[in-house]
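Collaborator request, handled under Task 6.
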Amino acid sequence: MEPERPLTAASSGAPRVSGYDRASFEDGELAWGTDVVHPADRETAWAAIEEAVEANESYDVTYRIVTAAEETRWVRDRGEGLADGTLSGYVEDVTRLKQREERLAAELDETFERVSDAFFALDDEWRFTYVNERAAALLGRDVDELHGADVWTEFADADAFRREYERAMATQERVSFTSYYEPLDAHFEVSAYPSETGLSVYFRDVSERIERERRLECHEAIVETVWDGVYAVDENEEFTLVNEAYCDLLGVEREEVLGKSAAAVVGDGVAGAARRFTEEMRAGEREEATISFAIERGDGETRQVEVRFGPFVDGGRVGVLRDVTERRQRRRQLRRQRERLRGLVELYDVASDVSNAAVEQTTRAAIEERVANGLCGGPYASAWVGRSTGTDVTRVATAGSGDAPDADDSLVRTALEEGRVVTTTGPGADGTGRASARSDGGDGTSAGAVPISYEGGTYGVLVVLADRPDAFGTAERTVLERLGQTVGHAFAALDRRAALVSDQVVQVEFRSRESADLGVQSDAGRFRFERTVTTGDGEYVHYVRVHGLGRADALAAFADAPGYDGARVVEDEDGVLVEARTADAPITAAVTGHGGRLRTVRFGTDGVRLTAEFPQGVDLRTATESIREVLPDAELVAQRSMSRDDTDAPRADVLGRLTERQRAAFEAAYYGGYFEWPRDSTAEELAGAMGVTAPTFHQHLREAERKLLGGYVE
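Structure tokens returned to the collaborator:
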């Protein structure tokens, strides 16, 4: 390694530090070590660099340079040797810091000049020949006590000092060193001058300086290890200190910031506000200052930052720059979540009010109007309800204004075809929500389509438009789904009520070769469904009169069917009456979902025939489509209007007083032969079929009997 070697690459900061352009170095016109480094420092600077590189260590050397303008400047040179023998490093202008150090050193020298250094003299046998008062005080001894004494006897633990003194005497050259003396817990700076007759030693206690240097080194290490950006600017608003975190946050190199004005780095607005706040803190008008702003990094990325700062006593300020981009994003996310939760609570309240109001209405049109108006007055800008026949939809009730999807929109068609809530935007829209080709409702809005259905029957669709793009999360869709089921239940209740009070029914007969989905496992026989009792939770108890089969075969037709949980024979007069419980009755649900009643199922050589009765006014086309969802090849072979038999026309005004559980208990008891004597079924058997305890069954039955008797007595 030679000091006159040329620079192969120089950064854009070279002209600012040395005054020479980069090309002068890279072309070999100038050599840093011989043309720029100050002549007085060339040998010592290069020796320090060479020593560090040979030891495979990084170097850190401070020396003077002569600029192109013939100015003497101080620089700090840090780097390392590479495998190919070249050096890689960077040079930082530390003139201002050095000037401060020199001013401080001058002040200290002036102070120490007024105070005599500690001094003692030793002869060639290491005996004290002179000790001044200052030396005696620092060593904690009396002058007379030390005079003539052997230095190594009096200070036997001073091994480091002894080595240096002996070296000075052996080489007859001055030695200067700083060492710690443990017995006195002090650091001493020593200069020893040898002669043929002895040694003259000048020393001073530098413990405070060493401690101060250690604190400065510690502070520098802390500043460099802090994750946040730390900086300092002087009274001229120029950067004098920045740590690596500050440079990383701005996406720049350290030399691109040091010496630059604050306005050039962070902008006039931020720098001006910081200067104004700093003056207010100096005047005691504020205790602290924080500024938030956006910065554009060197790579073009924009980050949100927050800086807290305070003034130096002698001018300038120091501050901490923190990246708050993620924190602000989390705050925005939490704010959006709070807004969604408020919207969800509002939707719960509105859905509850609409559900209660829908159940109280006496006509389907009134329910539809109440639902549309209730939702429009709550979390949605507009809402409409449509009646469906297959995938054809007719809008019957509309409230609010807005670009809600039309009846022929794919959003509406998908909701009806797939029987689920479909939305255009919002969380979970990746297959569980989104189905429409429309990106949203327009202008940051979103839309949803909710099928109105109950127990297999689809009555229509509810369409809503929200004025925010994320209105339909998983929770919102769940609420809307339950609302659609509640409204569907209200429509089904109206159909059942109409069936109870109507004297006329429509009897339809279907033929199908697909008998597996009927639930009954049989190749022959006629199955007359006397009564289907809904016990709640989607479960049914069928009372079926079987003709053409014996007791064992009739029971096996249900016991062997996978959809039935249990079956028993109630009686075997006039056919076999079987009680069968099921939680999977698709054909029953398809019929009862439209207010109808499954009457008979007959098996023969040409397939299976089933007969059902529906109240007048029911849309048979929709009911037929529901049946074909269970039996795809079902063919309508007969349709007739007929009067309801007296035995099949219970008093609607009386039965209407019963709850669903009370009516289920009463019908199970009646058709299960509980009122016969001797009884065909016990209370325990009927309770088991309903999935309740015997005391609960008795409670429902007694209350039903009280209401029914009251209807005839009152």
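The cover message to the collaborator said: "The first strand starts at residue 59 and ends at 66. Confidence is low (pLDDT under 50) at residues 111-115, 426-442, 646-650. Please let us know whether this matches your experimental observations."
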